[in-house]
Amino acid sequence: MPTTFRIWRGDATKGEFKDYTAEAGEGMVVLDAVHQIQATQAPDLACRWNCKAGKCGSCSAEINGMPKLMCMTRLDDLPEGETVIVEPMQAFPLVKDLVTDVSWNYEVKKRIKKFQPRKPDNADGTWTMQQDDADRVQEFRKCIECFLCQDVCHVLRDHHKHADFIGPRFLVHTAQLEMNPLDTADRVPELKKDFGIGYCNITKCCTKVCPEHIHITDNAIIPLKERVVDEFYDPVMKLIQLVFKPRKKAEE
Amino acid sequence: MAGTPLPVLPPPAPRSFGQTSRRDKWWLQPLLVFAGLGSFLVYANWAALQGVHYTHGPYLSPFYSPEIFGSSPHAWFGPQPGWWPAWLPFSPALFILWAPAGFRLTCYYYRGAYYKAFWADPPNCAVGEPRKGYIGESNWPLRIMNIHRYFLYVALLFILMLAYDAVQAFWFKDENGKGGFGVGVGSLVLTLNVILLSGYTLGCHSLRHLVGGIKDCMSESPTCQKMYKGCSALNKRHMMWAWISLVGVMFADVYVRLCSMGIWKDIRIL
Ligand code: SF4
Ligand code: SF4
Ligand code: FES
Ligand code: FES
After folding, report:
1. Any idea what DSSP says for residue A230?
2. What range does the domain containing B41 cover?
């Protein structure tokens, strides 16, 4: 069935939507259609992709207004007979057509304290961990760094707080390090001051778009917000922690 | 690199209010939340200011429990205190409703929901916003939301008190003032109300943090781990619990009110 695709063409300075027609076959995804258009009508159409299996996180774009992986969006899941709108991500600078410059994210990641494991538990230099404790952070390791959550987050997308807020992807990353049972570094003060966790107003759009179904808001952001409360807003908890046990065990 | 400021990006073209390429009914969900919470607010305020028809037999409306001062036999410290200013309408609900109201107002689920539905921040995911400036919860006034766990402590006490009311609702007095066990539809309504409120309160994000989430090695204390797992199970459906407990508590008030007004008849099952 011939389907119209309205694709954004242009670069950082100017651009416009152009309509193309592609033959939508059974089981096809948006990325297939984009490739078909590249092959038959627009050889200069720029799009980034790699695995076509929803695992490399390269083909992020916006399809009918929602951030999605092009390779995982099936045409038969979109409204039948309607034009399909394909745009680049809005939260990052445009390079060309569907390709955005996501390098801001790599810079942000460098600013988060690395994993600092405690001294090995065993003589052979290994650690002992319980499966249950590992499970909690395991969820966050599923992230494929597609940055769709960063794109949909209104703090970055609409309010452009890139200089003050690290975005949901890196709150997930911080949670992964911070909740790791072996880790000894404390990232809570940064979360409040430099990483801007307070900007998140828990509207859960990040969770909605995550192709790995990570419960970004419920399992990463809110638990981190609670740790910020422990440290900065709850005098009783602060006192308890001072008297009994510091939240992070410092390296002996 | 830790400690260096976050990199800055050139600002993109501004987006106008409601601007989006979404073609689905993105406005429907915030509209439903607006209608749902809005109706509850209107009803709750009206019901709280009535000051009458909040008890029926052994039943006490959850909007009025605990009744600290009031004219019903449920009151702890007797009728309206003398120091209550004459110009202020008196209702026993005014003494206590701040607690559940504050709890729900600062609840993580409701915050996300009403920021969207009442403040369009954002109207829905990937839809342009009406305002340019934004501080979110990073500063005052919304920084106050961090107080949520303190409301949680009060809410947990309220669950106990409402559970006590539910037990009382199975104890009917006859004309001679002699009490005996019985079951009315109202007893079941008040019991269900406590169950729903517990499902909501025990799935609270702050509670989930306090009982276990605060620890990185939860396995070190099996009790914490068990509580965390229970809390997490409820927390997964926190939104559902938030809504059904809201409807439940409102229905419990409506039930007691209509029985007290003589519009509904409370059916005795036992
Ligand atoms: S929940 Fe927070 S981080 Fe996620 S999209 Fe909303 S504001 Fe952004
Ligand atoms: S958290 Fe999910 S949406 Fe965000 S970058 Fe990772 S996989 Fe993508
Ligand atoms: S091409 Fe790898 S995620 Fe789509
Ligand atoms: S987060 Fe909803 S009640 Fe605490």
Report:
1. I
2. 28-76+90-128+140-260
**d(CA A100, ligand 4 centre) in Å:** 37
The candidate with the shortest Cα–Cα distance to A129, out of A183, A184, A185, A181, is A181
Phi then psi dihedrals of residue A28, to 5 deg: -75, 150
Best residue in A222, A234, A241, A245 for a mutation probing chain B (most B CBs within 10 Å): A222
How many CB atoms neighbour CB B133 within 10 A? 5
Nearest-angstrom CA–CA distance, B119 and B135: 13
Q: Do residue A158 and residue A64 come from a single domain?
A: no
Residue B173 lies in a domain: yes
- d(C-alpha A83, C-alpha B128), whole Å: 22
Q: Which amino acid is at B155?
A: A
Confidence class for position B8, pLDDT limits 50, 70, 90: confident
Tokens standing for A172?
Answer: 């997930």
| Contacting residues of A for B213, CB less than 8 Å apart | 223, 226
The token pair at B20 is 């989006």
Q: Which domain holds residue A165?
A: 103-243
If asked whether residues A224 and A122 sit together in one domain, one would say yes
ipTM of the complex: 0.94
pTM of the model: 0.95
- More confidently predicted of B253 and B220: B253
A95-145 pLDDT tens trace: 999 999 999 999 999 999 999 999 999 999 999 999 989 999 999 999 999
CB under 8 Å to A57, separation ≥6 — which residues?
Answer: A69, A144, A145, A146, A147
Give the chain B residue whose CA is nearest to the CA of A17: B21
CA of A42 to the centre of ligand 2 (A): 30
B7 found inside a domain: no
In angstroms, rounded to a whole number, what is the distance separating the alpha carbons of residues B217 and A130?
A: 8
- Number of domains into which chain B is organized: 1
> Among partner residues B8, B23, B134, which is closest to A64 by beta-carbon distance?
B23
Residue A251 resides in a domain:
no
Positive or negative torsion for Cα A127, A128, A131, A136: negative
Q: Which residue of A has its CA nearest to B221?
A: A133
